[in-house]
Amino acid sequence: MATSDHTASAAITGAIFDCDGTLVDSMPMWNSLVEDIFDEHGIAKTPELLAEAEAYNFDDMCFWFHERFGIGESGEALLASIRATVQGHYVNDISLFDGCRAFLDELKAVGVRMLILSATTEPEVRVALATHGIEDYFERVIQTSETGSDKEHAEAYQYALDALGTDKQTTWVFEDAPFAVRTAHNFGLKTVCMFNDHDGRDQAFCAEHSDILAHGYAELSLALLEDYARPAEHTQGVLRALVVDGSPDPSSAELVASLASQNDYVIAADRGVLACRAAGVVPDMLCGDGDSMGDEVQEWARATGVAQIRFPSEKYATDLALAIDCARHEAARRGEALALTLTCASGGRPDHALAVMGQLIDAADACPRLVEDGLECRVLAPEGAAQWVVGAEPGAVGSTFSAIPLREDTVVSEEGMRWNLSRRELRAFSDEGVSNVVVSRDAVVTCHKGLLAVYLVQADAPKA
Question: Which one is predicted more confidently, 308 or 156?
């Protein structure tokens, strides 16, 4: 993971952590415990009841079970019984998430102040922390009942923020529960969703309501938080960002150098730094896991002062996806729209080429284009770039042109081609637009609706 100087970064001075499902892998235990109570007493486990139970803090959940369903002699008796069971699980069955301690070490090393805000009662949280030897990282353990609220409401996070004494703009929240992620994010705190698959979470919801969605601590580092949170420059216009990927058959050095000169910001996606070095291009950012660079190239990157965000090799996202995220962060900081160019991304591996198309589709709002030697591909969409005057490209007249609809009911027009289309509705991946020919410098293709991949293929094309 990335390291920093031993002073608190302006990007993060405080951290509010949830415990269950965020620091320790205890949610399966909690889910089983709650479901077992329902089963034991013949109560139907509707999604609404399960969600209601999760929203309560530990104490209130026990009293809720007693008062609503008559379980236990009293709320106090039920609480004592469940508490003993839970503590036993924390000691014997519950593991710390992989990479958690290393991430806490990173934050502690730069003076980030940390506390825990949990719906679980403080004695149980402290048992979990002590079992794994991480209690000294946190200044306080706050249970939500102490705040007079719960994580459905911003008052709980305001209470924790006041207790921590750090600035709201530089305090991050780490949560796994979707409702808690949403509350913290809507309150204006920068939020990391620690997403896992086994809790049945809605990933799209979590991504929408968090600043960073991570599948584990392997995907987090202090450098990533700093990259996300660097202050915006509040400029206007368009950031032209080039991402140099690490395909086994890279673009020529001439093309990489030409594209770099045309763009404002260059990001090397891991092995892409090899292509940058060969082209004499020093990227603004190096993003990836470093597993395919080699010691010599890594030393070159350090010597040239390239900023780096490093990730472990075992991660959900690809180096390319992480690099595109970095481009989005940079555009957001500058207050600019993103115009994205990829190169060295599709050569040598058909499976990689298909995955790259997926990345272009996801970035349709950023007017994305893929440029390789003799090939340019753009994704057109009404919400991004809806039109390409393809005939104006150097050497385009006489070249092969293909348009592939990527969604059902895509509506396309082509003018200045050997075969033209006028608002033709095409089904996804139909071949009607394949192998056309550009015949005019005014040739243009327009995507009126849907999503369209367009290719200009030039056998003897000039570089860029």
Answer: 156
Average pLDDT over every residue of 18-47: 89
pLDDT tens digits, residue range 140-182? 999 998 999 989 999 999 999 999 999 999 999 999 999 999 9
Q: End-to-end CA distance of the chain, in Å?
A: 36
H or E segment and range at residue 58? helix 58-69
Query: Rounded to 10 degrees, what is the CA torsion of 283, 285, 287, 291?
Result: 50
pLDDT at 11: 74
| Cβ atoms within 10 Å of 110's Cβ, excluding its own | 18
pLDDT at 442: 94
CB 292 within 8 A of CB 320: no
Which tokens is 139 given?
């200044």
d(CA 58, CA 62): 7
* Nearest alpha carbon to residue 12 among 132, 118, 103: 103
Burial classification of residue 49, based on how many CB atoms lie within 10 Å of its CB (0-12 exposed, 13-18 middle, 19 or more buried): middle
Residue 441 CA to residue 106 CA, distance in Å, equals 56
Is residue 26 a contact partner of residue 129, using CB atoms and an 8 Å limit?
no
Asked if 354 and 253 touch (Cβ cutoff 8 Å), the reply is no
Query: What pLDDT sits at residue 459?
Result: 62
Whether 425 shows a pLDDT value over 90: the answer reads: yes
**Domains of the chain, start order:** 1-231 (3.40.50.1000), 233-372 (3.40.50.10240), 374-464 (2.60.120.320)
Residue 5 confidence class, pLDDT cut points 50, 70, 90: very low
Tokens of 290: 């470093």
Summarize pLDDT for 229-239 with one digit per residue, the tens: 766 555 568 99
DSSP 2-34: ----SS-BTTBSEEEE--BTTTB--HHHHHHHH
Q: Nearest-CA neighbor of 414 among 406, 399, 402, 396?
A: 402
Residue 9 has pLDDT above 60, yes or no: no
Task: Return the beta strands (E) in 124-176 as ranges.
Answer: 141-143, 171-175
Q: Residue 387 in contact with residue 447, Cβ under 8 Å?
A: yes
